[in-house]
Amino acid sequence: MTQVGTALREDAAGAVAVDVLLGGVQAAGELGLSRHEFARAVQLGIVRAGPRTIGGAARFARAELDRVRSAAGPPGALRERVETVAGAQAAAEVVGVGPSRFTRLARCGHVIPVGYRINRYRAVVWLYLTTELRSFAAREPGMLSGIAPSADRELMAAGADLRPRKWRGRHVGLLLGRAADPWERAAVLASVLPEAELLETVPDPAERIVLAALGPPPPYGHPQVPAAAAVATELLKAGPPDEIHWYRASLDFALVQARGQSKSTGERGPT
């Protein structure tokens, strides 16, 4: 069901104006995007969400949609920015290499997935932005042929796969860019830590409750079927020790800021 509301804002002259707020389906239609394309545009920060409904559903200001349209450029340009391909075969065709070479490029971190889906065999199928693949091919023609660099050969010999870690870094960065305050930033970082690591980093149960309440929902496309969801949930958690250490240190710093905010305002989290 389409949701329409209103919100108050100040215009350039300081006068109070009223924005019409639209639900995601209607907002997507006004931008000429499918639901999937619109979700990707929101994920990438191309379209900024407005105040949420009481139930938590995102709404989008008419003024924001006008801004996106005016900045989009020629017809179809916005759709091109959010276009994705799924899997190594399709991505390799965009880049102009074979699937095995593309898989090596992705596993070694040269191209970063923008999303994922879990297929019926519970295997992860990575999604890539078409525009980024084309930019990579134009920027790094030497990577598309010839012998792999020694660093890549070492990574492949060790069985490395940087795709989950690179995707997590991208996902967290986008979420942090949309976080409204220090507690939300801390909640984003906390959501990436395995439970045992989170308990050590945040021993205060009251703070963990706040972080859980403010934590981000699973990304668009996260499966609902339990078996597939279990596979996808593993992608949301940091794995290598150095990655876990980085998120723990970042969360420590974010919590210092969040606690400082609580002491000064008495809002959001424990004091």
TrEMBL record:
It comes from the Bacteria. InterPro entries: DUF6397. This is DNA-binding protein. It comes from Streptomyces spororaveus.
